[in-house]
Amino acid sequence: MSDNVAGEKAGLTWAVQISVVALVILWLIPTVGLFVSSFRERDQISATGWWLAPFSVELAFRGRADAADPRQENGAWVIEGSIFDDPEVATAFRSGSGVINAFGTRGVAPGQFAAGTVAELPNGDTLSLAADGAYRFTSPEEITGNGPRVYFEASTPPRFTLENYRTVLTADGMDRAFINTLTVTVPATIIPILIAAFAAYALAWMDFPGRGFLIAAVVGLLVVPLQLALVPLLGLHTRLGIGQSFLGIWLAHTGFGLPLAIYLLRNYMVGLPRDIIESAKVDGATDFEVFVKIVLPLSFPALASFAIFQFLWTWNDLLVAKVFLPSGAATQVMTVKIADDLLGSRGGDWAILATAAFVSIAVPLVVFFTMQRYLVRGLLAGSVK
Amino acid sequence: MNPATQGLLTIFIGVFGCIGYFYASNLVLDKVIFPARGPNIGRNINAANRVRPWLFLFPAVFAMGVYLVYPVVGSFYRSLFNRMGDEFVGFGNYGSLMGDPEFQTSLFNNFLWVLVVPAASTFIGLLVAQLTDRLAWGNIAKSLIFMPMAISFVGASLIWKFVYANNADIGLINAIRDVFGASQPIDPLQIPFWNNLFLMVILIWIQTGFAMVILSGALRGIPEETLEAAVLDGANPFQIFFKIKVPQIMGTILVVWTTITILVLKVFDIVYATTGGNFGTQILPSYMMSYMFRDDGRATAVAFVIMLIVLPVMIWNIVQARKEMR
User: Fold this and answer.
1) What pLDDT shows up at residue B271?
2) Where along chain A do its domains lie?
3) Residue A154 phi, psi (nearest 5)
4) What CATH code would you report for A165-383?
5) Residue A9's pLDDT band (cuts 50, 70, 90)
6) Burial label, B147 (beta-carbon count in 10 A; 0-12, 13-18, 19+)
7) Which of B12, B57, B308, B320 best probes binding to A when mutated, by most A CB atoms within 10 angstroms?
């Protein structure tokens, strides 16, 4: 538009396009990495970075040459066969074949010799392993007992699995934590809305002394650090017999969410057309009726944006959950579970960590992408003046 | 009782309790206390209308009083007592905080966070808002950059742990160093001083979207005429942006800046989930949590220090809000 009037240069447009693409990629990479990792097998995660996930991974395996029927050939004892017939190897190569790149006879050097070459071993033994898995072991002495160990490195095709999700959701108690998070979130989102809506109506459409002071107080309370609330309120809850419990955290989230709720809703309600409300009053409607029948339905967009804020905030909260809920597994929410349990005890298990993190962010992401319109509207109502 | 059932019951009681309270209290007010009939009808209606706002406000004001106002006083009062809370120590807790090197580290780090995170988020957010303004796919780009807003701080910390991992086969940073020939992987979160910046990146990553959305809205609100006048005067796109657009949305930039500043002073999750405050990355909120459940006197003293830092912003916000109402 106006830039075109000045004859905007095509080069500048391209620079803009490219920088936006670069920024978007930069912003997405970390999350994509987590997402991809959560579907990879544990061995593959530690072997190559997630950015190599579509490619084959070179992994080390071990098997044993089958010494069931050695035969004699030119004065030496020989065993031959395919390493993929070994039961230990077969579990990893379900198709019964693979491509071997290198082999060895010691676990510390599984890729000492290139595939297809003949390795000279101590005592005059030799071992060769072809790329297709065919091995040939020779020994000057008669082969008795078990055949020799064969280590080899083979490319395994990229493999994606839901196994991590199964582990996280069943064995690791993330299912329990998921339900706990949901249990905390839903009442803590719904209850403040009504309380705040009535208060917002009073602050927007009723005239009474002290109204200005109350609005200022709400604005001030918006920024009170929650850290202040922890110790005194936990003490209060304990004295009241609520203690650390779901009831306690619902009450706490309700109290903490009210200033934002009242602020957003009041800003919205003030903008509603005055004549609708006044003509309803002239027709004899009480404030209660005006609120329930006119203001509340009209305020739906603002109610929705607050609900999304509160939902995201309570779902993602760690601080309040750590303080107001007991720390046992029965009441742990997902953020606490990840921060205190998984990061601590399973710090190195990347597959579990990625999957648990993804389980915990999946619901907020769905809410975010489906309700983004309301979220943006709420943000704008709250901040742009 | 099963927590989920308890939750449903609470929703039920909460919602119907609320409606019931508002309905019943209005009814009582209009029919019993100040009935709109009899000899005093005019006076009664006026009296009822004077009381009614407080019926509407009572639950909210009560809840905010208990959950937000009382804690400010309660925390300050508690911070004047010792660990067990049975002995008055005056400002002793604050005194020992000042002498604790870890507190000084937290204060310094927090200062860095407040300096860097709001500035970086606002700047990048403004940049993205401007760049995407006229792109055909601008809304998709914005939506993707906004996405981290939905992710918890814990989730974000974990996502970035994958970037920072001390292993060239997991961590992107080390993989890139590996490509450029570094022999040994490093742990970015253990490099003194710089690790603070690496942690800030996580919060910047989250908050840029917030800044972008709001600033984008503000940019759209700039009157077209001012831009056209600038174009006619021969201003180039950079001049238009810095000399025409930015000054007009300065108020919004300030709002974004202060909002993120407040947030920075409250977020303990990132430090808690990544370094646990080790390697010189402690900040005040996480320092406070390390005393929570152990020494409530200390914990409340730290919380009150945070409150004191937030106070100027709070006052500024209130002044702004009052100005608008006039």
Assistant:
1) 92
2) 9-53, 57-156, 165-383
3) -135, 150
4) 1.10.3720.10
5) low
6) buried
7) B57
